[in-house]
Write a structure and sequence with these properties.
This protein has helices at about 1-30, 35-40, 75, 80-90, 125-135, 170-190, 190-195, 210-230, 245-255, 300-315, 340-355, 395-405, 440-445, 495-500, 510-515, and strands spanning about 45-50, 65-70, 95-100, 110, 120, 140, 195-200, 235-240, 265-270, 270-275, 290-295, 320-325, 360-365, 410-415, 415-420, 425-435, 465-470, 480-485, 520-530, 535-540, 545-555. The chain is of the alpha/beta class. Strands 2-3-6-7-8-9-12-13 form an eight-stranded parallel β-sheet. A six-stranded antiparallel β-sheet has the order 14-15-16-21-18-19. Strand 15 and strand 16 (about 425-435) form a beta hairpin. Helix 9 packs parallel to helix 10, helix 11 (about 340-355) runs parallel beside helix 12 and helix 14 packs across helix 15. The protein is globular and about 80 Å long.
Amino acid sequence: MEYTVKQREKKGKEREEAAGDHDIFQSLLQYAAVTEQEIETINESAVSVTAAVNGRKPRVAGHWKRVINAGYAASVLNREVQDELEQLVQELGYELIRVKGILDDDMCVLRRNMWGEIQFCWNYIDEVIDFILSTGAKPLLEFGHMPLLLAKTDPGRTMRPALSSSPRDLAEWRMLIKNLMEHLRERYGINQMRRWIFNPWISGDVITIDGGDEFFGTWKASYEEMKRVSPDLVTCLSFGLGPEEHLKAFIETMKEKECVPEIFAFRSFGTVIYGEEEEKMNLIQNNESINMIVSRDPDFLRNRGEKVKGLLQKAGLGALPVLVDECSSNIWQRDLCNDTCYKAAWLFKNLLENEEALQGIAYFSVNDRLDEVFPARETYHGGFGLFTMNGIPKAVCTALRLLGRMGSRLVKRGDGYFISTEPEKNQSQIYLYNYVHYDMLYRYRHAVNISRTDRYRVFNMGEIRTFSVKLTGLEPGKYCLRLYKVTKEHGSSYDAWVRMGAPERMNRMERAMLCHSADPEYRVWEQETDPEGSLTVQERLEPHETALIEVEQIL
C-alpha cells in the first residue's frame, strides 16, 4: 500500500513537471515559425480615454527629473560625458547629478609615501564637483569604493579599480573621510554643502559580502565624520539588489546603530535572485553580469517601491523620503535591448507611473562608459547609457527629452497614457506608450532569438494599441497639434544604424547622421473643438512605440 501511494505521488509530480515543461515549450513555440512582423501584428486593442483639462488640477510631482546618474566619478572627467550632462541639465532641469566611486583608485585620492605616511590628493574630486556646480546642478556623492591601500580584503575586482571591502583599519578610513570633508568645507563652504546629498558609503549590496556589522561600521564612521562637519548635512543610505528579508534587516540595523539618514534609497534593475520566481528554466551564466534573472513583473519598480516604503513605515521611519538612486530595466552589462525602442517605452512606463510615488528616480546611466567589464568595440553593444560611448543618443534619450516637455498639472493617467496641462499657456500634453515585457526565455538570458541586428524577438506577444483621447473643458476654437513619436523608423539611432548596414566602425559623417536619426517622427496639424470645447485625438502605437501629442490653442 505504501509503495502504491509513493508511486502515485511520484507520477503526480512527474505530471506536474511535464506540465511545467509543456508551458515552457509553448512559450518557445510562439516564435518558432513566426516572423517579426507577424509577431507585432497578431492582436489589436483600442483604448478610449476622456479627460477634462479644465478645473483645479494637482501639480505634477516631477520627481523623475530630480537626479541623473553620471556614473563613476572618473567618467565625469571625460569631456563628452560632461557635454551630455550639460545638455540634460539645461533641457530637463535636473537638480542633482549623482556620482559614485569618488574614492576609487582611478581618482588618485591617496598613497603612502616612502615613510609609510598617508598622503591625500583631492584634485580630481574637485574637478568633478566644480563641473557639476557649473551646470547649475548639485552633487549627490557616494563615498566609495574602498581604496586598495585601506582595503581589508579584495573580494574580486571588476575591470574598474573598485573594491567592495571594509577597511583594514577603521581609524584610517575615518581619517580619509575627515580630511575630505574638511577640504570640502574649506573649498565650498558649509552653506553650499547643505544643499548637497552625501551617501557615506557604497550600496548595501555589501551586506551579503562581508556582513552587516562591518558594512554599518564603515557607514556609521563616514556618517559621523560628515555630521561632525555640520549636523545639517543631508545623508542618504542606499540598499542594493538583495532580497526583502535583507532589506528588512538593513532598516532595523540602521536604527540600532543610530545612524538614520535623512533619505533612504534603493536600486531597481528589474531583477531577482535566481530561484526566487518559481519557473523551470535554467539561467545562462556569463562573466559580464550578476547572475540574476529579470523579474516577470512588468511593474517591478512600483511594487518594490511600495515594499520599501511599507518596511520603513513599520519601522517608524515612514517620514523618510525614498528615492531610486540607480534604475534600469536589467542588471546585465550587455543587454542588447538597451539600444532599442523597447527602452524608450520602458522609460515612459516606469517614470510616468512612479513620478509621484518616489522622491527621485535616477536613471542609470548617462553614458555607456562604465568599464566594469571590457569596453566593447561596437557602438551598439547594449550598454546602460542614454548615449553611446561616442555620444550618439539612443531611443531612450529621445524619450527622456520628450518627458521634459511635460506640463505642470496632472490631468489624468492610466494604462499606457499620461496627460498633463499648462493652464497659463492653454497647452496640454498627451503621453502614450505601448510597453511589452521580456519573454521568459530572454529573462533567463537565453539569447537564441537576439543578435546584433535583430533585437525585437525576445519579448512577450505584444499588440497594436490604438488610443482615442478626448479632451474636454477646452476653450472652444482652433488648436495646433504636434506629434513627436519614437519608432524603429524615427527616433531610434540603433535601428537607423541597422538600416545603414550596421558598420562596426563609423566615420565622422556616419556618426553625425546617426545623431540626427535620434530625432523623433514629427507631424503638425490644426484641429477645431466642437462647440462644447471637446477635441479628440487618435494615435496608433505598435509594441515598444512611444508618443507625445502637444495640444495648444491658436490665439
